[in-house]
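Subject: for your reference before the review

Hello V.,

The reviewers asked for a structural picture of the protein, and I figured it would be easier to keep everything in one thread rather than splitting it across files. Below is the amino acid sequence we used in the manuscript, unchanged from the supplementary table.
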Amino acid sequence: MNTQLIDGNLVDCSNRTIVPARLHFKDGLISAVEKLPHINQEHLPFLLPGFIDSHIHIESSMLVPSEFARLAVVHGTIATVSDPHEIANVCGIEGVRFMIENSRLTPFKFYFGAPSCVPATTFETAGATLDATAVEQLLDLPEIKYLSEMMNFPGALQGDPEVLKKIEAARKRGKPVDGHAPGLRGEDAMHYIYRGISTDHECFTEEEALDKLKYGMKILIREGSAAKNFEALIDLLKTHPDSIMFCSDDKHPDSLVDGHINQMCARAIAKGHDLFDVIRAACLNPREHYKLDTGKLNVGDPADFILVNDLKNFEVRETWINGVCVASEGKSLIDIARTSHPRVNSFHCSKKQPADFEFISTTGNEYKFPIIEALDGQIVTGKSEGQPLLHEGKWISNVDEDILKIVVVNRYHEAPIAKAFIKNFGLIKGAIASSVAHDSHNIVAVGTDDDFICKAVNLIIGDEGGISCVNNENEWFLPLPVAGLMSFEDGYLVAKKYTEIDEAAKSTGSKLGAPFMTLSFMALLVIPKLKLSDKGLFDGESFRIIEPV
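And here is what came back from the structure prediction:
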């Protein structure tokens, strides 16, 4: 291949300069960086390293990796640090191998982790278990760059042998360990970090993040489709520029169409943050922490770079990976991958009847229920007390008070259905349901009555995975045949269908910004305060089931 040339205003973070330059690259590698001091800067785009999402679950985009890549490159993303924890909870090692194999169909740079907590807790039913031996097998794969988020922080603090074996296996191989410890402060945070855990993306407040930074941890500022911590944490970039990274964690397809890490950069600049600090967080700190083979725009580096029109909005003109242009002027140049790779899944439950969702009263109408409080833009929940309606000896949704029934249906085998009540979904007459339900991905549904809930759940069971919305007039369904989490379809088409079903949920009354994303976290037990698993209502602060099925 002949040497290729690209001119631009080179953003050099090492020297904190912006100078006109010509990039020479051949066979995917940068061969020379030629300064062009006499070139008119005004008409050149800005040339900088490609963006890296430092922590994401690709599965939450509802797209297989090859389709995620097609959408992400348009926004200047060239790589992700990807935790395949979701598919591992459904399909185990087979699921992780699927993600790796599918990612090879695209020039995008996926760096996967070995899921550390499958299942996430003993208080739920998952489709697989990854013990320390299985984790070691994964860590030996060249595509596995780190040990994924150690959500079992109680186990780390208490010295659980399995937890310590997994951490030690990563350290022995020189691979970093990601953390997950929402709300952990003081000595507990110190001991957790001293186990060898190097990052956290779950900080809700600046004070919590400062506590962890003090002991040497890197902080990932997260702005996803559900959890949004940018506003709370972005000022840390001024004081700890070498210890901050940007991530999305979970990104639904519609918001991925709109933007990615580029949006976080634009917001940081708008708040007055130093350009070079922003570029470090978005491009370079992840590369250095995870030892990634992405470009830094030095001679000998892979030709991974982006051209942007300005350093304010970060509107991406072109994205290049390994010397190949993969996006130009808002259009992806990556072809849809045609693969015969078999889909993976685990779905072994039969369709339900409305009577299966009845909540028989054993207490009388004076009983105050613990109520889950969904919080818009957060994956944590509140906890309060309230009263659904008692009708003919059964507890039903109190729509006027926005206290709706929530259920979790075990998708891996036949089992009793877990039921509780939740606020802030706001549905007036209907139900929504999803087989994307972190972390075990059983079926979670919220609705105004048992008929609607049953219809929404059965749409998912009938197709072995997806998200659904039903009301008096219509039914909407987005199939997710890959592990009940992802689709092989064109990512832009999936995003369009997701937008339609999201709008349907909102037309049914939900005031949440992303009702399906919020729903998907209502069974996530490792995030406080109150959640529902297939085994019962779970208190994340005392870490126990308080109302069993």
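For the response letter, the relevant points are probably these. The mean pLDDT is 95. The chain has two domains: 51-295, 354-548.

Happy to draft the paragraph if you're swamped.

O.
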